[in-house]
Amino acid sequence: MTIATADEALLASLGYKQEFQRAFTPFEVFGVAFSIMGLLPSIASVLFFSIPNGGPSVMVWGWLVCSLFILTIGMSMGELASAAPTSGGLYWWTWKFSSPKCRNLLAWVVGYSNTIGIIAGVASIDWGCAVQIMAAASIGSKETFIPTSAQTYAVYAAVVVSHGVICSLGTRILARLQNLYIVLNILLCLAVIIALPIATPKELRNDAKFALGNFTNMNGWPSGYSFFLSLLTPAWTICGFDSAVHISEEASNAAVAVPWAITMSIALCGIIGWAINVALTFCMGTDLDSIIGNDIGQPMATIFFNSFGQNGTLALWAIVVLVQYMMGSSMVLAASRQSFAFARDGALPFSKYLYRMNGYTKTPVNTVWFAVAIALLLGLLAFAGASAINAVFSLGVVGAYIAYSIPIICRFVFENEFKAGPFTLGRFGLPCAVVSVSFMIFMCFVFCFPSTPTTNAQEMNYSSVVIGGVIGGSLIWYYFPKYGGVHWFEGPVANLGGEGDVVKGGEKGEKGEEGSVDVVEVEKESLDEKASR
Ligand SMILES: *[C@@H]1O[C@H](CO)[C@@H](O)[C@H](O)[C@H]1NC(C)=O
């Protein structure tokens, strides 16, 4: 059997007919997972979690430890992806591997946490982008300009809305730019790993004792606890690798390519990210208070500023902002596709209006603006206090971890027909799942705590409020008398063997995306084009 017919046969055994072209080579699947992590700009966005919660030692060792745990998540997810490589992914596995008694409910919860996680991803990436733009303004004005929350929110809103416009208009230009953006991202990583140590003046270079061993705890939590809080930096950066799962039906030899794409992208981000952190700790000087608290307002921009000077930083920073902006637009696309697929199964409120293709632009315009509107609302947290906006970052991770852990648990807890694919850990599958799920549950609790111990309305962690509200709201909606999902929601619908035709909305790009799909349309299109050339 050729690879193509084997792919098709495997998909048919899952209940789906082959509708997409299998245009993605294994390396390109890896590229999708790797690029959504946007390594350097992502680290820049969340450095303010690791520097005050431990400083150098957590940046170096916390990153390493956390990457290893995230790799166990990737391996557990990889086993599922190898056994059932369908683009519905998380949502589909949950439904398939749980008991018929509760599978609709569990798939519902996974779909909701995945959706809110991705939209929080949009909000946090774009907020990071707004802060980066403001940092550039501050550096450009020789630190005479200090942005207020309202100004940062205005920039944030402009970024989010512009992404909405781009994603409504179609994605061809973005697709073209995608390759450029991967190259720029890698150049940025090299710039930090190689150029930063060269450019840093002697007095800011740190010895190994400080760079690898200093523990500075600024926020007042017990040291052990602040260590866990600092892990939000790697956890937020190395996230979203389920994007590889969502292109399963477009990947050649998916049962092998997808799990390897997940694990390799995590491993590579872990290693390169670690090198970046080491370069930073050796070159950031010892005055951590000023890196966090100065007027530039962006820790990595400050480190660059101290080492490269004003012009060098502005040049480099322009690329950071650009790559971050591109990452945000990919994320809006992902969020709109996820909402579209979830609305297709009728699960979102107002699904009837959301599940609609715009005939003129051939994009799901309604779900694009649905995602934009929720992201704008989440950004309003900036007005509830400086640290309230942190909640948006933790929300992205918590939403993802809830959605990642439920299918892994279901596979082992319920009686089901799980049959390992070519990527399998054998008898280490269960221990690996226990480690990864325990890690994710633990992290969900950690990230729902406030960032400092003095809890008041400004300092409390709103991610517990938002995630509680979303899950609670979705449960109420599920059990709602008469109209609730419990009365009609059937999980993902198979399209092979006449169980119902899912192709209501119509055109090629949308067919066959079952369940919670966040196809990274941007990469897909660019690669499709490449393949057809
Ligand atoms: C870490 O570095 C800071 C600044 O140099 C210093 O005040 C502190 O004592 C150091 N802490 C440890 C544990 O080495």
Low-confidence stretches: 498-533
Rounded to an integer in angstroms, the radius of gyration calculated over CA atoms is 22 Å
CATH topology term of the largest domain = Amino acid/polyamine transporter I
* Average pLDDT over all residues: 85
Overall structural class, as computed from helix and strand content, comes to: mainly alpha
Instruction: Give the percentage of residues in beta strands.
Output: under 5%
What's the helix-strand series?
HHHEHHHHHHEHHHHHHHHHHH
| Span of the ends, CA to CA | 27 Å
Report strand order across the widest sheet: 1-2
**Helix content estimate:** 55-70%
- Can you identify the CATH class of the largest domain? Mainly Alpha
Q: Let me know the CATH homologous superfamily of the largest domain.
A: Amino acid/polyamine transporter I
Count of beta strands: 2
- Which CATH-level-2 architecture of the largest domain? Up-down Bundle
Quaternary form: single chain
Domain tally: 2
Distinct ligands:
2-acetamido-2-deoxy-beta-D-glucopyranose
Q: Biggest sheet: strands, sense, closure?
A: 2 strands, antiparallel
Brief sketch in words of this structure:
The chain is mainly alpha-helical and 533 residues long. It contains 20 helices and 2 strands.
